[in-house]
Amino acid sequence: MTTNVIGIPLTRVDGRAKVTGAARYAADFNQHAQLHAVIVGATTGLGRVTALDETSARAMPGVVEVISHLNAPRLPYGPHKSFIDPAVGERLHVLQDDQVRFYGQPVALVVADTLDHAERAANALRISYAAERPVVDTHDPAAQTVEPSGSGAHGDTLRGDADRALAEAPVKVDATYDMARENHNPMEPHAVVAAWDGNRLTLWSKSQFVVNEQAEIAAIFGLPAQNVQVICPFIGGAFGTSLRTWPHVTLAAMAARQVGRPVKLVLTRKQMFFTTGHRPRTLQRVAIGATRDGRITSIVHEGNGETSRYEQFTEALLSATSYMYSCPNVRTRYRLTPLDTGTPNHMRGPGEASGIFALESAIDELSYGLGLDPIELRRRNEPTMDEGADKPFSSRSLMQCYDAGAERFGWARRTPAPRSMRDGRLLVGMGVASATYPVFFGPASARVRLHADGTAAVEVAASDMGPGTYTSMTQVAAETLGIPVEQVRVSIGHSDFPPAPPHGGSMTMASVGSAVRAACLAARDEVTRRAVADQRSPVFGAALDGIEWIGGSLRRLGDSSPGQTYHDVVASSGQPVEVHASNQRDADAASRYSMHSFGAVFAEVAIDPDVGTIRVRRAVGTYGAGRIVNPRLASSQCTGGMIGGIGMALMEQTALDTRDGRPVNAHMADYLMPVNLDIGSLEAHFVDEDDPHVNVLGVKGLGEIALVGMAPAVANAIYHATGIRVRDLPIRIEDILTA
Amino acid sequence: MLSFNFEKVRTEQDAIRAAAVGGRYIAGGTTLIDLMREEVERPEHLVDINALPMADIRADGFDLVIGALARMSDVAAHPETKRLEPLVAEALIEGASPQLRNMASTGGNLLQRVRCPYFRMLDAACNKRDPGSGCSAINGLNAGHAILGTSDHCVATHPSDVAVALVALEATMRVKGPDGERTFPVEELFRLPGNAPHLEHTLRPGELIVEIRVPGGPYARQARYLKVRDRASYEFALVSAAVALETAGGTIWQARVAVGGVGTRPWRMRAVEEALRDKPPGRNVFEAAAQLALEGARPLSHNHYKVELLPRTIVRALEMAGDVA
């Protein structure tokens, strides 16, 4: 029988390997005769290196090489950009000149026989700088604002006359929001082991996009792509920081070639605040006008994100504003502030998480101005189509999410007035916000091999940073082939495998899942062709379309026999079946529909009115995200994202010293993220959503939307609890006390 | 980490002898090893005292006696601590993280180095790490820094939670050194930074903390520790308060108040204690007394909120101890 394994709460197929230590992460791939490299970062925020005294470092025990701009090989740095790289600007060329563009920028690399020896010598390097004052604060008077160039995706938009409609609106809010810079801070640090064999390079490297890392390193070193192999079977969390290929990968490869031995390079926690991206700080203005009965007539959303001087990082800060509400007049304006910092990059819920915070805070504020329940306000302005793109939604279950979420959360118990709910001494508040994220789809291919023993091997250059790619792809393959999950072996994270899009943007399930399904269907076809051509087969001579595939066996249509198992076909043909197929979706549907996930996020906070401590006691996230492949993993993914959103609301902030641009809290004790004690009850629920348009699996993806909406739900709950509206994140005790 | 010699000692005499010639004691190592990795601490000779018989926790009459090597988690969980000095147990549990509490010793906790980020960064000026180099925090990011006892040379807060409780409870410590043994109040262990912030404590060369004695008393059991911070665990205090009250017949007979997170050392609030004496416990009395905590407060550019938070924390801790709310 066909096993329906898509949709079941299968436990992680790689769970045992992970908890027993059998799963190997980048830094686990130690090589024979390997050396250790340590990066020396600039201790000034802007300027240039004027002198570098390496004499004493070179004389220290175990030191093999010291590389700086003075002796580093000039690398070709051939052009290469994938769509995860900023469209405008040029990546940092590491150790190619004496310029210091930001604090912590690599200025030297020490290679030694042990990590200890390398670290000791790194600390002994004496480097002099001609230092200038960097500009690292968006509010610095010296900071300049620019219009992003060549970025159609995130350009300014206008429909109707938003400013006039705002001026004429009888009820309005107009507020500004300041969200702190964040760093991804996954558990696993960036790590790479680089080994050359002649002109061929192997990189065991933490990456969410191995085929792009292959292409990027090949371009930097001027090699054919096939000379570079990138291997990354497991990722210990990433949240976007391992989408791009950062300078440490280049440095490890450079060093390995220089010393003629494999080189291992693992970033310290502190170094992960310098050159591996960050969620940019954003400044936003949201103004909303409405009629007295709560019809939104105007939305103005202006946003500003920080970027580096050498690249323009843009994100979808304002995109959701065009389709969240029915509104005839909408204007968005996106600007960048180049600063003397490293380039930001995508961090979970990139763009949307920040933009939705401002938009959903303003909507909440408007609800109080109107005296309307915040859910009712959203209901009154729920669009029937994407008014920004002028297209129907492929599906939109936002109101179903609100209905189901309100029920689960107990929204009816909420009393509307701020400061009206208490639990003993504590002020209690309930807040809500919408979440959304686009449904992306990228080209992907997969290879499937069917063996005579009945097992199936699936290979694709995808990644698994935690959502459970191994497990969900196993489910797709098992269901498509009609075999038990135990007979499927999925291999990912190798650039030799068929290519996959970046493991980000919530597109892995849709893109890679569709490719795995396509490859499994192709494998079935091949088995069928062999069977009908095999005189020993019970289906010999049947037409290809006269065969049905049931539970891993094939038989003539209408036949009630158990049929012939596919491994029997494979065995008697004497050759394993190996096929390769690419994902496809209905291109017409993709252009005709606006495709997004939606969710409703509820939070309850308790605030100590005396000392201002804020605790999120409960949160419920309800999502309409298409078909849910594995409810257990989906729930885990969503609660993880909700915790990220709580961190965004209440804790996370990379604090830069404006004198030299250094992050002063680059340490897990000082960069606050929630710990277990901060997290109360979290629930994630999924409304049934059958979307035939998004892709063949009907999945929308969950990774990104899980973080979106949590921060505004918390901020809105804090307002409900206290009557204090905090528009800058993170919201801290001092904001409650000094409001 | 730089190379160092490591010597494991079995007797107090051997320990003191080794330390008197420049050895550094190491117990749990949760501060020292961390800072050695950053090369902020560069000891040449470590003296491992973990084998010394100084980990006992016991009652002596109404007093609680804690061996200097007793681990934070062991002290917090000990029945005699809970019975005689619940304030100590509460302060310990609020400190650090479970992993750190399992390693960190009581003596080491009192001697832990500051959490000022500039102290921990070799490329930042810090008078505590590198005397005379300047203080990066005074004009830098100083939201976590002190408002009491600061100088123009250092504004770092003392990070210990349990030290605040011990100061409030007038605990004493027994130390042994090359010149013999002495006993003095825990409060006197800590120096103000003044113009020599690298000198943090009053121990003489080679002196070894042997035990802490926490006097029992009627107020010890009506005592609470309140630690206010943005994260519920594993964060140093923005402000903390250890308070103990002896009340009878609707009157406060005596009060003990010490605070953390705001001072360059654990800060005993004698003026607040005086203002509470002979008054009826209650919000108004507490608030009036707590205002006196701000005497001499010097907020920095980013920690003005501590001026607001300090009296509020004391008031709330007093309410918890007085059980009036």
Structure description:
The complex is a heterodimer of chains A (739) and B (325). By secondary structure, chain A is of the alpha+beta class. Chain A folds into 3 domains: 31-132 and 186-238 and 242-273, Aldehyde Oxidoreductase, domain 4; 282-440 and 590-737, Aldehyde Oxidoreductase, domain 4 (2-Layer Sandwich); 442-584, Aldehyde oxidase/xanthine dehydrogenase, molybdopterin binding domain (Aldehyde Oxidoreductase, domain 4, 2-Layer Sandwich), CATH 3.30.365.10. Chain A contains 16 helices and 32 strands. In chain A, the strands form 8 sheets. Chain A has a 7-stranded mixed sheet with strand order 3-6-1-13-10-11-12, sandwiched between helices. A 6-stranded mixed sheet of chain A has the order 8-17-15-14-9-32, with helices on both faces. In chain A, helix 10 runs parallel beside helix 11. The longest helix of chain A has 25 residues, at 508-532. The radius of gyration of chain A is 27 Å and the shape is globular. Chain A starts with 14 loop residues before the first helix and ends with a helix. The mean pLDDT of chain A is 96. Chain B is an alpha+beta fold and 325 residues long. Among the domains of chain B are: 5-48, Uridine Diphospho-n-acetylenolpyruvylglucosamine Reductase, domain 2 (2-Layer Sandwich), CATH 3.30.43; 223-322, CO dehydrogenase flavoprotein, C-terminal domain (Enolase-like, domain 1, 2-Layer Sandwich). Chain B is built from 11 helices and 12 strands. Chain B has a 5-stranded antiparallel sheet with strand order 4-5-8-6-7. Chain B has a 4-stranded antiparallel sheet with strand order 9-10-11-12. In chain B, strands 1-3-2 form a 3-stranded parallel sheet, covered by helices on one side. The radius of gyration of chain B is 19 Å and the shape is globular. The model of chain B has no long low-confidence stretch (mean pLDDT 96). At the A-B interface, helix 3 and helix 16 of A face helix 11 of B.
